[in-house]
Each structure stands twice: as C-alpha cells, then as structure tokens.
Amino acid sequence: MDEEQRGLVPADGRRAGGRMMAPVGATKEIVVNGRRHFVEGDTVEHDQLVLLAFPEFRAAEGHALTVTYRGGPLSAPEGLLTRYQRTELARGRPLSSPARSRRSDDLARLRQEGYDIAVEAGALHVRRVPYVTCRREVQLGTLVVPLRMSADVTVPPTEHHVRWIGGTPHSATGEGLVGVNASEYGVPGQLFLCHRPFDREFRDYHELVTSYVNLMGRQAVLIEPTSTARVEGRVIEDHNEGSPFHYVDTASSRAGTEDLSRRLEGQTIAIVGLGGTGSYVLDLVSKSPVRSIHLFDDDTFDQHNAFRAPGAASLDDLRLRRAKVDHFAAVYSRMHRGIVAHRGRVQQGSLSALDRMDFVFLCIDEVGSKKAICNRLARAGVPFIDAGIGLEVSSEGIFGLVRTTTSTQETRALARECIPGAGGGTDDPYRTNVQVADLNALNAALAVTRWKRHLGFYRDGGGEHQSVFDVESGRVHTADNRRGASSMLDASRGAATRS
Which of 7, 188, 268, 499 has its CA 20 to 30 A from that of 340? Predict the structure, then answer.
C-alpha cells in the first residue's frame, strides 16, 4: 500500500531498545503487504489487494478498525480486528477472514488464546495438538470437532466424541492414556476419541477443545516441556469463505463425511426439466457443495405442481404464477449461492449451454427433445442421467416402473438403447401423465445416489448403467455393462422404453 493511503502512517525508523516506535498519536501497528505501518485513527482506505495483519495492538482488545476499499465500504471483518488476526481484501470483500468463529464466543476465545483453529465443512479443526505416541515420542495431531450451529452461531455441544487425525494418544510412559477412549474411525490415520466431564456434556466448544488438548498435552510436556497447542502470532483462517452455502454445512461434519463431500465440490450441474422428478433432484443436489446448479424449464409453477414438488408452496407463491425456474431458484437460493435459472426449453438453438456442464440430469418426457440433448451431451463428453416414470392406473391400483439410466463414456451405447427417444423406445411414456410425489422423490433419489457413486461419494461397484424399480413387486432391477443389459431387461420388460 502506498504511504499516501489514508489512515496509515509509515514506520519512521525510530527505535527504542531495537523496537520500532509508533509515531505520536498512532494507536495500532499493522502490516500491509509485508510493510509495517501505524494507524492513527479508526479507518484505513486502500485501492489494491491488501494483506492486512495485526502483530500487536496498542489499544484495548477489540478496538474497531474499519477498512474501506475505494470501490465500496467494507468492515473487515465485521468491523473488528483483534490481536493475531488477519484478513485479505480484494474487490471490496474479504478473501479469508475469521468472521464465522468471531460470531461465536467460544470459538473466538480459542482464537484469542492462540489455538490454530479453522472452520472447514462444518467442523472445527484444531491443528498442531501435541500428543505422545506409544514410542514416547511427541508428535502433532488434529482434532476434528463437529459443530452444532444455529444461524452460523455455535450452540452447546450435545456430543463429546471427536475425530482425531494422528496416532493413538499415550501417556508419557508409553501406556494407554487414562481418561480418553480411542477407536478406529474407518479411514486410515483417523480415530474416534471419547472424553467427557463427569455426569454432563461440555458447556461449549472452548471447554471441549481445551479438555482434549490439556489431557494429551500434559503428557507431552513431561517429555518436551516447550510443546504447546498455542501458537502465538500464527495466522488463523476460516476456510468457508468460498463455500457455495449461505451457512455452514454442519450435517456433513456430524456424520464425518466432509472429506467425501469435497469430491462433489466444483461441479457445474444442469437439471433439465423441473417437474416432479426434476424438482426433487434439485432439492437433493442443492444440499451438496457443487459450484452451481443450472435450471432449465419453460413452464410456469401452477397449483398441480405444488402437489408434486418438495416443500410447501404458499397461496402467494401460486398467485405469482412464476416460471418454474424462477420459483425454485428463489426457494433454493436461500441455501445455495449457485442456483442459475434459464427460462425456456433446451432445443436446437440452446443446446450449447449444456456443453460446459460437468453433469446433467434429464427429467423430461419429450422424446423429440431428448434425442437431440442426448446426442449433444454424448458428443461433448458430458455424463448424464435420464430419469423417468411410467405409471398406469387400474382398478387394483397404480402400477408401473421408475427408471434411472446413466450415460457415461463407458456406457453410451447401452444407455442409448434404454432411453426413450435416444435410440430405444419411441412410445410416449407420459401419455396418461400419471405422476405421484413419492415416486418422483424415489426417482430423484436413485438418480442423485447414482451421480454420487459416479463421483466417489458412495462406493461404486462399477458397471451399472440402469436401475428400474417395479412398483408392484417393490423390486429394483439393475443392468450392469459388464454383463450386458439383457438379464435386467428380461426381468423387467418394458422398463427401457419408459421415462
């Protein structure tokens, strides 16, 4: 930052005992882009990328400092910077800041005490925690604590189990550590640890973290007296600023699946058709950390749609008669930042919009459009799933099939034979348009589960390119490309021609 930037006074070189002295009137010393400055007032203005660090405060802890970017005002972060905190600023917003943990007193206290913490994928990571191995060596591990949050503010924990990335903790004598139980987590190099106060749960996450750290750290100090989990002056960051969600995904951290959820990150997804099945696909995909979800449909959201869609539309929603893409974008943008609405049908002039997608869900019944879309996706090398339902009404009840067909580079030819209009059947499977919400939801769940297997979130035995649920029998028939489609098609004749 240039010295002429407002609010900053460059270090003038005066020293006392080898220490840089602040000019008269300056209250705080800061480091901007690697250069030391002193702040006279409560505001700083800049016009370039800024790496802003506070090695020391010369005023009361929590003194407000407002940082202004010339393109617009910014309180960085949230108007307050305290000791040992850092923020990076570009285009008027923080790239990395401790904002979430600063909204929670227990996490803020851990930060102020010098613990190396980060909030990642809904879990609190406490790094550089010293512990003793079975060989009486001091090493460093990481506590991973699932967070309970309400509106991004922590609430008292109800569980005392944590994940531990490191070896099994021992006492200074190399024996098992009394007071903590360790068990296998299922992932190499990770354990479950169990420790709690007598007859109660932890009051907050500060007590939980410090209890675990002290339990292991007391043993480490007996071998290495200088070992500590507190790292003074270390830059500590919150890693959720790039999250596609408006609030922290604490469900993944509670289940211990945040590492697997990262396999879904960065994906650009398209959902073509927002009828019953397509809307449920959106409901499920929007809860995954994909980069963006593009919605394609040319219809309006009417009253009958409300009975086939997830959630509960209000009368006001129905009176608006918005396009389906606008209605669902408004609903799911409350949770996911990357919802993109495209009004209109995907047809010859707009097929190119699908070329940049990482994965596409086809949830339409128009045989003519489907053939063009399938051919385009195959040429572009884009994997996709075609989902559809074929139901009929009889005096004995509804019967029919729920089909999910997966087309990847390995299964293109087999999938083409199973998708109506793409090379398989030509009948209109929606000639009676029988749709039931629970089967729409099932169709979507099977499709999204198959997509997650494709990306490795679920373990994939490999080979399946089609599944068909028979409503009458309750059986799911699958076709494996390693064996060919004949066995499944013989068992469930007609499934390949229904959508």
Answer: 499
